[in-house]
TrEMBL record:
One cellular component term from this protein's GO annotations in UniProt: adherens junction
GO MF terms held by the record: actin filament binding; beta-catenin binding
Keywords: Cytoplasm
Main location: cytoplasm
An annotated GO BP: cellularization
Protein name (database record): Uncharacterized protein
């Protein structure tokens, strides 16, 4: 940064004119028209050069000269003169040079916190065309012209956002980088989606996407006025480490009363605040779990932590404080382990069949009931199930962000969560419309929204896989499969074909999810780590195939006991393979190598 700023009100109309001329050039059919348009573009280039130099608000003479030098160097690379007679075969090269110049100008503007100007101009133009589209809805010729212009605008808009994302590190000060990049990612995804639906003329969907774009850029404008980035990551880890570090101040290393923190009351108040935030995270996780055991364990440890802190707060004795602090540290580590195990169980449940709630909604819409007697209330149960599913997805993602320090993955997860949050209401609205009035428009609208929703969920699932501790996840899957297989052992008097079928289906689903997760983790690792992991995964895959083949036994006329015995034998192959993976991950320390040392959803060892 050289201290200069730019008068946006001066540069905006000139930049707008340049962009419009570039866009219009692509629509011209004859060489004669293109020749005239090129002269206009070259005049705009000269106007831009002068405007960029005249719009500067210098900090001092040195910074002014430095800035003007940058502008002159940038335009000296543009080797086209207004008096040059251009041949038609030179047009593509010329337009490429113009686009490169536009990218350079955007980078220059970005260094002065106004790189967002260009995309804001694009948005205004897009909004104008959409308004014209709605006005000309009866005029097919004008609608088609506006539609083509809109498509062209969106392509240019997308190109500009691409440039902004590429140069995002110079758009804003360091404090806002994460949040601004999140907004740009959202804008990029929205524009890609918009490009797919334009020619379908789905006005409601287009209006929603433009509204989404407006939110993204309004948010960026808001962020530029803040001093602190609103994207706070690794909260759970930071809180836990802060608690443990404060408790270390009371540890057995103290030999005298003077070794206590100088302001004991202030230290305890600070510790209380950290513990409250930590327990808030923990209780949120307990609320999204469907397993009573996990919920009860989190609540139990949370209560024990509170009780021990009360004991700590009530004593001034050095040795008692040291003892309680040590015990409280152990309880916090046990709570962290329980919370992480609970999240891993929720990940297993949610991502094993992630689109099941939406499938239930679609099945309801496909029922052959009289459409005249349908009501939106008919979908209450399915919508409630979908809302709960979305709530769990969001909390999984948020907790993952609070447990990781990998900035790139965190940004990806936050982007997926923002998209899913925005799409949730649109998906419900579109499925209700489809249920009440199934026609080509409602079907296409729902298909587009559902497809976009699935893309975001898949991206979230893939990113989640890469921040899971593979060993901890294997342990969770092994425990769940062991519980399921114990329920169908031949000595269980309640065993029946439906019970065996249900449990076997879950076992296969969990195993398939584990194979996919481990494979995805392995594919992102160094060759030596990848090779070891793939060997372990292949053994598990063979066990899965054996177990999958055992489904045929469910249709054979044999006693439930014999059938159960033969199926259990095959399931034990899976359990043995998973235990072997767990052991190898521990012995070879692959779990430590995976993820380049970034924090994961894992279990902190309690000494």
């Amino acid at each position: 940064m050289d201290g200069c700023s730019i008068k946006l009100d001066r540069i905006a109309p000139v930049m707008n004119d340049f962009i419009e001329k570039l866009q219009n050039f692509e629509t011209l059919a004859t060489s004669e028209k293109k020749g005239l348009a090129i002269r206009g573009i070259l005049i705009s280039v000269e106007d831009l050069r002068n405007c960029l130099k005249e719009s500067i608000v210098p900090k001092d003479v040195k910074s002014q000269m430095s800035y003007i030098g940058q502008v002159e160097r940038m335009f000296s690379e543009f080797n086209w003169d207004v008096n040059y007679t251009m041949k038609p075969n030179e047009y593509p090269k010329f337009i490429t040079c113009c686009k490169n110049l536009a990218a350079s100008i955007m980078k220059l503007l970005g260094k002065r916190n106004c790189g967002i100007l260009v995309v804001d101009l694009y948005f205004k133009m897009c909004e104008k065309v959409v308004n014209e589209l709605s006005i000309n809805v009866e005029d097919q010729v004008n609608v088609l012209k506006d539609l083509l212009l809109f498509q062209m605008l969106v392509k240019g808009y997308l190109s500009s956002v691409r440039v902004l994302r590429r140069f995002w590190y110079v758009i804003v000060p360091p404090q806002q980088k994460c949040s601004v990049m999140l907004c740009l990612n959202q804008a990029f995804k929205t524009l890609c989606f918009l490009g797919k639906v334009i020619d379908k003329r789905l006005t409601h969907l287009i209006a929603y996407l433009l509204s989404r774009l407006k939110q993204c850029f309004n948010k960026i404008v808001e962020l530029l006025g803040n001093q602190v980035d609103q994207c706070q990551n690794s909260e759970f880890i930071i809180l836990m480490d802060s608690c443990l570090n404060k408790l270390d101040q009371f540890g057995y290393g103290m030999t005298h009363q003077e070794d206590l923190p100088e302001d004991l009351e202030k230290t305890l108040l600070s510790l209380k605040s950290l513990i409250d935030e930590l327990l808030c995270h923990a209780m949120t996780v307990s609320h999204i779990s469907n397993r009573d055991y996990d919920c009860n364990m989190i609540k139990s440890y949370s209560q024990k932590v509170l009780d021990e802190f009360k004991n700590m707060n009530a004593t001034q004795n050095r040795s008692d404080l040291a003892f309680i602090a040590d015990k409280l540290s152990d309880l916090l580590c046990q709570l962290e382990e329980t919370v992480n195990d609970t999240i891993l169980n929720v990940v297993l449940d949610v991502f094993t069949d992630v689109n099941d709630p939406v499938r239930n909604l679609v099945n309801k819409c496909n029922q052959s009931e009289d459409s005249l007697n349908r009501s939106a209330t008919d979908l209450e149960s399915e919508i409630s199930e979908f809302d709960e599913h979305m709530d769990r997805l969001m909390h999984i993602g948020l907790f993952a962000v609070s447990c990781s320090t990998d900035v790139r993955k965190i940004l990806g997860i936050r982007s997926c969560l923002a998209s899913l949050e925005s799409l949730e209401a649109e998906l419900v609205t579109s499925v209700i419309s489809l249920y009440l009035n199934s026609n080509p428009e409602t079907r296409v609208t729902f298909q587009f929204i559902f497809r976009n929703w699935m893309e975001e969920v898949t991206d979230l699932k893939n990113l989640m896989d890469l921040i899971l501790d593979p060993r901890a996840f294997c342990q969770v899957v092994e425990k769940r499969i062991t519980i399921l297989v114990n329920e169908i052992r031949e000595d269980d008097v309640s065993v029946s074909v439906p019970k065996v079928r249900c449990n076997l289906c879950k076992i296969l689903s969990f195993t398939k999810k584990l194979i996919k997760t481990l494979t995805r983790i392995a594919e992102h690792e160094e060759e030596n780590v990848k090779k070891r992991m793939m060997e372990l995964i292949e053994s598990l895959r063979l066990g899965y195939q054996e177990c999958e083949a055992s489904q045929a036994l469910l249709d054979e006329e044999i006693s439930p006991g014999d059938m159960s015995k033969r199926i259990v034998k095959r399931v034990l192959l899976i359990i043995t393979s998973i235990r072997n993976i767990i052991q190898n991950l521990a012995e070879d320390d692959i779990s430590q190598e995976v993820g380049d040392g970034k924090s994961k959803i894992y279990s902190r060892k309690v000494n």
